[in-house]
Structures are given as C-alpha cells and as structure tokens.
Amino acid sequence: MKKAKFVKASILYGLCLCLTVGAVWTGYVSRARAEGRGETAGREEEEDGALPLSDVQGRSSDEGLSYAEYLVAHAGTAAGEKTVFLGTDALTGTGADVTVLEEENLAEMPTGTDSRTTGALLLRGGDSYAEYSLDLDADGMYCLSMEYAATEETSRNPDVKITINGEVPFREAGEMDVPRIFQDSTPIRTDSTGNEVAPRQACVYGWQRHTLINTNGYYDGAYCFYLPEGKNSLQIQGSGAAFLLRGLELVPAVEAMDYGAYLDETAGEDTSGVLVKVQAESALYKSDSVLYPNYDRVNLATEDSAGQYNNAKYIRINTMGGSLWNTPGQWISWQVEVPEDGYYNLGCRFRQNFLDGLFTSRTFYIDGEIPFEELGRVAFSYDDEWQNMVLSDENGSPYKVYMTRGTHEIRMMCTMGDFADTLRQVNDCVYQVNDLYRQIIMITSTSPDAYTDYFLEDRVPGLMDTMKEARDTLSEQTEKIVELVGGRGSKTAILETLKVQLDSFIEEPEEIPIRLSGFKDNISAVGSWLVDIQSQGLLLDYLYIKSPDVEALEDETNFFSNTGYSIKRFFASFDDSVYAGNSGEEPASVTVWLNSASTSAAGRDQAQIIKDMIDEDFTPQTGIQVDLQLVQGSLIEATLAGMGPDVALMVGEDQ
Predict the structure, then answer these.
(1) pTM for this one?
(2) Three-class SS of residue 592?
(3) CB–CB of 624/592 below 8 Å?
C-alpha cells in the first residue's frame, strides 16, 4: 500500500517538473522571437514598407527580381537621348545555331521578305544568340523593338531572352513572347448549304516591327530597359522557334502625352461630313491565328462584311473577337481610307458580356503609335446587349484624333488598362497568404486538432504582420475597383470575403487552426478571380471614323423588328438543311453522324468546323461527297433498324 502511494507521488512530481520546465522554455522562446520580430519590424518601419534600393540593385533576376522592383531601382532615370538602331555593323558575336544570310544562301529566307534579308540573322533556337555593342553618352531608359520575320520552319511564336551587360535585367526579360502575324488567306465564302464560312488564317512572312511588351497584364505598355553611360553589350537569345532578325532598335522610353497636350501639338481643324465604316470581320492583320472572323446571331442589327443585317435562316460571318480575343497582348488591326486632313472621332459597335460587373480594356494605335495617353486604356463596359460607343472622356466629350489624308492602320490591343496595378497587387497578396498557409499546415497539418493550441503567433515568423499587410492590400484594391466600376458586386465580394477572414484571424489568432479549411478555399477563390479578371473578351461588329459634326451611329432596329427576327429564327431552326449538316448532295456518298449530347450552339459549332474541313480538304482531294448530320439519339437502335450511318463520330466506348 505504501509502495503504491510512493509511485503515485513520484509520477505527479515528474509531471509538475516537466510542465514547469516547458513553461519556462516556451516563455524564453517567445521573448526571443518577439525581440526578433521587434528588430524586423523596426527595420521595416524605417524602410516605410518598401524594399531597400540597395537590396533591389544588388539582386539578380535569378533571385526573383521583378519588373516592378527593377523600375523602383532605376526610378528617376531619364529617357534615353536618341533612337539607336543596332544592325550588322554593331554585331559583336553570334551563337553556334545562327546563320548570317548572304547572297549564296538567300534561298533560306521565307516567302514575303525582301532584299533586306541580306545580312539578316537566322536564329534557330538552341545556342542561338546575337550580341550587339553600343556606346551611350548618358544613362537612360529605353524601349526595345525588334525588326524580325517569321519563318516557315516553325508553327509557334518565338521566345527571346534579353541580356544587358551579361545579366538578365529582370525576371520577365528571361522569356518574352514575339508574336507571329496572321491575315485572312481566303475570302469569306458560302458553303453548299448557304451558310458563310470563315476564311482560313495564314502567317505573314514579311518583315515586322515589334516592341517588347508585357503579356500577362501585370504591367501596362512596353518594357523599359536601363542602359548606363559608356560601352554596353546587349544580347538577344532565341529559344525554340526559328526567326529572322535584322536588328534591334532602342527607343527612348517616353510616356504618351495627355489629350490636352496632344491637341496643342497637332493644332488641326475639324473635318466635316465624313463617315467611314469598317466591318470588324474585314481585319487587316492579327497577332494570333485564333482571331478569325466569326458569327453572332443574337441581334438583327449585326452587320456582315457587305454591311447587310443578320439573316434569320443562314449563318453570316459578321463579327470579330469574342472570347478568343481575351489575352493581354493580342491585337487586331484594320485599314481605313481617310478623305482629308483633320480631326476625326473614333467609334465602334461592340458587345462585352464576358466580364460580369466589370469592364474590359483596349489600347488604340494609329499607324503604330498611341496618339495620347487616354487611348492607352479605353474601357468597354459590361452589358448583355450590343452597345454603340464613341471614344470619349469622362465627361462624355468625344476624343478628336488627327489623321492625314490617305490610308491608315487602326490597331486595338487587349490590355488590362486600369486593372493592371490591381492585378499585380492582388497577385502578390495571394502569394503572401498562400505562403502563410503552407507554413501553418507544416505545424498543424491539414486536419488540425480543434482543442490544441499550436502557438502559431510564436512559431510562424511575421504571421500577424503579413496578415495585416494582406488585409490592407485587399481593402485598398477593393475600394479601387469600386471606384473604377462605380459599385460593389460579385467580383469585389471575393476579395472582401478573404479580407474579412484575415480581420477575424488578426483579432482572434487562436481561431486560425479551426477555420483553416475555409482559409484555403478563400485563397483559391481569389486565385480563380485573378484568372477570370485577366480574361478580357470583346466582340466587335464594326468600327468607324467620323467628323465631329456627324451624329454617332445607332442601331436602326427596334423591339418589333428584333422580335420578328427572333420568330423567323425559331421557324428556320426546324429546317435541318441550313445547319452545319447536310451538304445538299443527293445521294451522298458517305453519311456521317456527329453525335452530340445536345443540339446546343456548342454542338453546332463543332459540326460547322468539321463541315468546313470536309468542304475545304476532304471532298476536293477525294471527290467523295459527305452528308454530315448532327444527331441526338441512339446509334444502336438506328443501326438495327437499317437506318444507321456509314460513319459515327463522338460515340461512347460502350457502343
């Protein structure tokens, strides 16, 4: 009995001793970490939340130097003094996979290039680079343009890497996309069913100029490169796709003037009585092969390439863009003929039903240049219906653009516009909180115990400071979006949800493990929001330029005409001969069923694509007529009844 009491007393004494030692050790560690956080916070307070300039300048791109940090490092540097072209005379070396095209090997030059190909460089990827030297009289910031041509050796865009004085200046310069340029290789034509078919796209192999720009939407405009006074070396390295390079051009990085300064500089006169309309589907060039003309049958007033209204029975190619024209950096250009010198207004008919509650943005170029700053971020508001708009200032006064008599090229480039800074800030915020989440689950696991105190404040360095910074960033960017779009909506609700959760974590840190799953879901939701907001879709019907005294174009249809059009479309839908099905040939040599889960627009689009391939390639090459039918039904029953097709597509494996 006495022995049992002695054992119990020993166990209790041991437990008390362990608890006492643990408490002392925890207090010591907490004080040490608190002192460490205090020193860190002191340094951050001295830096006013900014990355020290010395740290930025001392970091290489391999360590994650971003373009934003690069601009901070060289803030205050003036634009370069003059434009510098780096051609063959400035070339100091090339890689092993580079060919200099001379008279004896000009057969390698692509179709569409000219005599300027002599002396050009053919970069084929691998160890292909060209290095140039230049001597500058002063430090300066420059934009970098390439004079290049695509080759027939590749089917994708070239990527280039820029190195200045032996170092990649910033992370984004390590891989920059150089677009190939496309145009319609055939006219819009009508198939055997009476529907119009979009033209094929072909790569343009002539010489092009391209200024290196950001294509993820985080930064607006062209990249700026810092070059110090004295001798410099500039290297461009190709990767993957082959391309021809005549040289590089350094252009002083000067911001576009504002509208007021533009009017003072041009000092022209208003034109009178001029209206020039260009159908969007009649584009001159585009930066991507997916930017082909398409059709929209929603509204009667949508015009085709001949300027005719929509047809209730047949498909008419009448629009350009849409969901495929949604990536920053993609552009489409049109050619317009101007009858006289003077000021004009720019307008367009569009539909933006892609970014609910927000707007999409485009940059307008006239003959390769942005006339003034405001045309660098033109907003297209959300609406399910078609809209007509004249490019105007915030007060509704149309912008005046000076154009000389003759042919001009109008280019619209997809951009993030006023959302660029918000996108970058929120992306950095998501990275921070996601890193916090990883550090937390390293301690708690993904399924923490609700009754355990994990002492996260002590064990995760800078936990509260990072959460406060992320909360402030989300709050600031939410208010900025509200100001831009004029109200709150579903797009801001996602940011506000994460902000509210961070607020609650700051007030009650012990709740973090309990609500860890919701924290992860909210981070994922904001990440999806970032992807969604970068999708800048826009559908165009036509563009026009007009004199200031000409009324803006408006739809001439009304409720009754549109209702009549819808009724006609309904009855025409019962005539299967006009859809992407029957070729109209009797009898058809081959009957093909395209099985679709539903006869929706998506299913009809698939059928139309296959029908185009049949009409353009298969039938002309083989002479075999094909009766393509979009069906919804059971293949087995039809085959047993002797009514089955010769070929069936999109059929389940069980059949």
Answers:
(1) 0.81
(2) strand
(3) no
